[in-house]
Specification:
- The chain is of the alpha+beta class.
- The chain has three domains: 151 residues, Jelly Rolls; 44 residues, no CATH class; 94 residues, Homeodomain-like (Arc Repressor Mutant, subunit A, Orthogonal Bundle), CATH 1.10.10.60.
- The protein contains 13 helices and eleven strands.
- Strands 3, 4, 5, 6, 7, 10 and 11 form a seven-stranded antiparallel β-sheet that branches.
- A hairpin with a 3-residue loop joins strand 8 and strand 9.
- Helix 5 packs antiparallel against helix 6.
- The termini are far apart.
Length: 323
């Protein structure tokens, strides 16, 4: 299947290298070798096999996949996705896969910080500040996440607000591709796509947990379950029963991966989730306590202080002052 969109407008006999698809589960074309893929995951969680290690990703999330990726889904739970396919030549005609993979535009890209905000190019004779004003380099940076991290797939965790923002852009791409209401639909598709790529390039919504890799598939499955049920009542007995495993086997697996027991890992994940809500959300401490699986706010505050040295309110005040 060609992942492109043909014009339906009278007098516009053309097609563009952008395609949109949404629905339950993952698209069958995520390993397409002729396109980049920008995926929004609205609901659910899934486990990915990365060369014998396992990554757990929980919605809402974003995924960027290049043309070389081998995207292996081990398991998924209640996944719904929206996927935008595009060729980099849609951003700029000379951005063929061959040109990008040759790294011909990378003269300035690898940089180190020297002193205060001074950037020095490494491995080239072109300074960052000299070539960055040129539009070709600016537009090349939009594609950073598809080639610069040494990985073929990059994962992002999104807050609810960030997901809504990205989803509006994706839905705008979908509308103009499907409806083509006027002769400017191609221009709008490019604008909305560039806006999506800018958000990823500027690291607006990176969250560390999408970078966690697990060596043990049992740990990956249990961690995925935890992330999908942080607000639920979870006991060690319920975990042992759900995964048909004994206590020693489960805790040995978690201790080997994280130097902590299964339930200690759950507690840490809940505190980390609470930090995110306290820093970026407007929910009350009581509401955050419930979201993170603690029915008693007092006990939640005690656990939170054990991990951070601060009460939830103190932590929120400190984070807000830094912003």
């Amino acid at each position: 299947m060609e992942l492109k969109t043909k014009s339906k407008r009278p007098g516009m006999d053309c097609s563009i290298d952008v395609f949109f698809e949404k629905g339950k589960g993952f698209s069958a074309y995520l390993n397409d070798r002729n396109t980049y893929k920008a995926v929004l995951v609205k609901t659910g969680s899934f486990v990915i096999d990365e060369d014998g290690e396992y990554r757990v990703v929980t919605a809402p999330a974003g995924i960027l996949i290049n043309e070389k990726a081998d995207f292996k889904v081990v398991s998924e739970n209640n996944i719904t996705t929206a996927t935008t396919y595009f060729k980099p030549t849609f951003i700029r005609e000379e951005f063929t896969f061959e040109a990008i993979n040759s790294r011909k535009y990378d003269k300035f890209y690898t940089t180190v910080t020297e002193g205060e905000d001074r950037l020095k190019a490494i491995g080239g004779d072109v300074r960052f500040e000299d070539c960055f004003p040129e539009s070709v380099y600016q537009e090349y940076l939009y594609l950073t996440e598809f080639y610069s991290r040494g990985r073929d797939v990059v994962y992002y965790s999104l807050t609810a607000q960030e997901y809504d923002s990205m989803n509006r852009l994706a839905e705008s791409v979908r509308y103009d591709l499907y409806e083509q209401p006027d002769n400017f639909w191609i221009l709008r598709v490019r604008y909305f796509l560039l806006s999506m790529l800018f958000a990823a390039t500027a690291d607006f919504y990176i969250n560390w947990r999408q970078y966690e890799l697990y060596k043990d598939p049992l740990v990956a499955r249990v961690a995925s379950y935890f992330w999908n049920h942080l607000g639920d009542e979870i006991t060690l007995d319920s975990v042992l029963k759900r995964f048909s495993v004994n206590k020693n086997t489960l805790n040995d697996a978690f201790n080997k991966e994280f130097s902590m027991s299964c339930m200690a890992y759950l507690e840490k994940q809940r505190v980390d989730q609470a930090k995110k809500y306290l820093q970026f959300g407007n929910e009350s401490v009581s509401e955050i306590s419930q979201i993170c699986g603690y029915s008693e706010t007092g006990y939640f505050s005690k656990v939170f202080k054990k991990h951070t040295g601060q009460s939830p309110s103190e932590y929120r005040s400190q984070m807000k002052s830094l912003c």
